Amino acid sequence: MADHEFSVWAPRPERVRLDVDGALHPMTRGDDDWWHARVDAAPDARYGFVLDDDPTVLPDPRSPRQPGGVHERSQLWSPRADAWTDDGWQGRSIEGAVIYELHIGTFTTEGTFDSAIDKLDQLVELGVDFVEVMPVNAFSGTHGWGYDGVLWYAVHEPYGGPDGLVRFVDACHARGLGVLIDAVFNHLGPSGNYLPKYGPYLSTGSNPWGESINIADAGADQVRRYILDCALRWMRDFHADGLRLDAVHALVDTTAVHILEELSAETDALSTELGHPLSLVAESDMNDPRLITPREQGGLGMTAQWDDDIHHAIHSAVSGERQGYYGDFGTLATLADTLRHGYFHAGTYSSFRGRRHGRPLDTATIPATRLLAYTLTHDQVGNRAIGDRPSQNLTTGQLAVKAALALGSPYTAMLFMGEEWASSSPFQFFSSHPEPELARATAEGRKREFAEHGWDADEIPDPQDPATFERSKLDWAETTEGDHARLRAFYRDLIALRRDEPDMADPWLDHLRVEFDENAGWFVMHRGALAIACNLRAEPVDAPVTGEVVLAWDTPSVGEQTTTLPGHSVAVLRQTG
């Protein structure tokens, strides 16, 4: 037992009592609405707070651990003194890196941090620089995507809890891999959210996922601090090398200093304190370059952002899909425009939105490495009606073309787990809400949403069915089989080329040159002396480029003036003269 200081911000209740292992203790309210109590407690004591006359023991909003789930008491936790072995880790910048997005629950059959560690050497061999884990904060139920978190400071117990995350990050650093953690600060999940009982954590507004977080209304100062301290906790206490910030366009901040700018400043200060780089990668639907413009130049100071326009341009050009938000994409001209300028919608009309969208990127001052290029993400797979991957609809050659366009580009690159071997597993939307009404509403809402777009409701997987979760797990045995193994080798060689060739390190879009023939179906991206020549058609085509073949998917025939590319293939050629 040891004397321990317990505290909680709770402006709404008139009385707060502390429950430690079933014993109640009074708490004292300060002028700042923080309640405090010093109590003898074991290092792993279970505790919570009792508000006013309601006898329910609520978890700590800043709970370090939730061994019984998000509805139960919190538990004191701190890592063992010998838990970390990464003192020699110097960190690394994400700019120009290759990031690997994964979901702990489906990355392996076991779905834990420890089982994920067993696969890290394969990522190192592939050439990955960072792993980006989908949210690991505490959420209700045993499995889900993680975006319904309600206790942001705690780590989801079925994955292995906080000790498991420590082991995972430490193992990544031992192998030279950086770690990004996906953090959700724009909404709270529908099950286990007790924060409004404590204070004004929610605003009067809403977004597609629920009520918005109060970052600009009355009482917002402590809510902002709650967000900032949580973000810094992942990087300071769990040694993460940065964060992926979910849907920052849903963070409605009308104050003079945007919370992202504040987070950027505090992250830079922590980086200086720790002595190694820390990165903030924002997911944004805004196409607003101010997000990735340095603070000293009037921007918000994010290190980088996801770029869905690049995804849409590559995917629609290769696959031919033109529905929904792909409607403005699909041509080689659109692909060329997007790769050259970063955003396709840059103050231009978006048919999907029915209005002008975006703002031009200053390619002379903002390097391409501040934008992420990818051929798929958890969203672009899981938010499809049946969670089907491109590998379930395209030829392996088409997948190779997509990979070459993303990994061969000057942008920071990102893969989604299993794409490198054309995984046959879908990544479907799954949940495990324990409340029957919420479970039913989730399943019915999913079917209704896609039925409105013409899908047969019976084809839509039930998110609550455990089989939906099980289907979404990777089958690692595929990595050594046939075209799966061949594609993985191609990805590995592309990443090595990206790393080893000086021309591939040029981050300036003004230096990028592309040429294409819309009718013939060939597309060439020039990176210095290297030409990445793609055939997006099923028939062979002659592309007006020649040189030494450095890497190819299917063997091209190089002539004096042109190179014949087999159908659905790509070749990287080194040009001379």
TrEMBL record:
Q: Which GO terms describe its cellular component?
A: cytoplasm
Q: Which domain of life is it from?
A: Bacteria
List the residue(s) that the UniProt entry marks as the site Transition state stabilizer.
379
Q: What is its EC number?
A: 3.2.1.141
The Glycosyl hydrolase family 13 catalytic domain extends over 101-498
**UniProt-annotated location(s):** Cytoplasm
Q: Name one Pfam family in it.
A: Alpha-amylase
Tell me which residues bind substrate: 244-249, 308-312, 378-383
Q: Which UniProt keywords apply?
A: Carbohydrate metabolism, Cytoplasm, Glycosidase, Hydrolase
Residues covered by region (Disordered): 56-75
Which pathway is this protein assigned to? Answer: Glycan biosynthesis; trehalose biosynthesis
**EC category name:** hydrolase
GO MF, any single term? 4-alpha-D-(1->4)-alpha-D-glucanotrehalose trehalohydrolase activity
Q: Does the keyword Hydrolase apply?
A: yes
Q: What is its main location?
A: cytoplasm
Q: Which reaction does it catalyse?
A: hydrolysis of (1->4)-alpha-D-glucosidic linkage in 4-alpha-D-[(1->4)-alpha-D-glucanosyl]n trehalose to yield trehalose and (1->4)-alpha-D-glucan
What is one Gene Ontology biological process annotated in the Swiss-Prot or TrEMBL record?
Answer: trehalose biosynthetic process
Instruction: Name the residues annotated as catalytic in the UniProt entry.
Output: 246, 283
Q: Which family does it belong to?
A: Belongs to the glycosyl hydrolase 13 family.
Q: Which PANTHER family match?
A: 1,4-ALPHA-GLUCAN-BRANCHING ENZYME (PTHR43651), MALTO-OLIGOSYLTREHALOSE TREHALOHYDROLASE (PTHR43651:SF11)
The protein's name is: Malto-oligosyltrehalose trehalohydrolase
